[in-house]
Write a structure and sequence with these properties.
- By secondary structure, the chain is mainly alpha-helical.
- It has a domain of 82 residues.
- It is 39% helix and 9% strand.
- A two-stranded antiparallel sheet has the order 1-2.
- The longest helix is centred in the middle third of the chain and has 52 residues.
- The radius of gyration is 31 Å and the shape is rod-shaped.
Length: 150
């Protein structure tokens, strides 16, 4: 009587037989190599996708942080009629809770600020910062440097 499974399929129908008529169990070396090669290819493709998704998430966080910092600077200027002297002044005056971490450099200290141009109509607004950029020297997935993002 042939061995069978719980669903009634005869296992002997799937068994391999070598030229001498003996039953052979297992896989050949070439079959194992092909399966291993396919697994390696799929794993490498998925790793690239994973790294790109992490970079896209960091870029989205950077865009949000830049927007929030610039918005806080604009609100500061609208309220006080002058630009903040640094990012810490935005925190001390309550415009932001804390200086956000640059998601690209993973630091709060690497933000690059731009000095505000003096306004001839408002001499009190001289000095201070009016823009902020990432301090990273890396380039984004679209090829633009993070420091040039507006």
């Amino acid at each position: 009587m042939a061995p069978s499974t719980a669903i009634g399929i005869k296992l002997s129908a799937f068994a391999r037989v070598n030229p001498r008529g003996r039953r052979r169990d297992g896989f050949t070396m070439i079959e194992l190599l092909i399966v291993m090669a396919l697994i390696i290819i799929l794993a490498s493709v998925s790793m690239v996708q994973y790294r790109n998704s992490v970079t896209r998430a960091e870029e989205a966080a950077l865009k949000e942080n830049l927007f929030r910092l610039r918005d806080a600077m604009d609100q500061f200027y609208a309220d006080k009629n002058k630009w903040p002297s640094d990012l810490a002044e935005l925190v001390s005056e309550g415009y932001i809770r804390e200086i956000p971490t640059d998601p690209i450099t993973k630091s709060k200290e690497t933000w690059q600020t731009s000095q505000a141009q003096s306004d001839p109509n408002n001499p009190a607004s001289a000095g201070g910062i009016d823009n902020v950029h990432s301090g990273s020297d890396r380039t984004s997935l679209d090829g633009t440097p993070y420091i040039d993002w507006d």
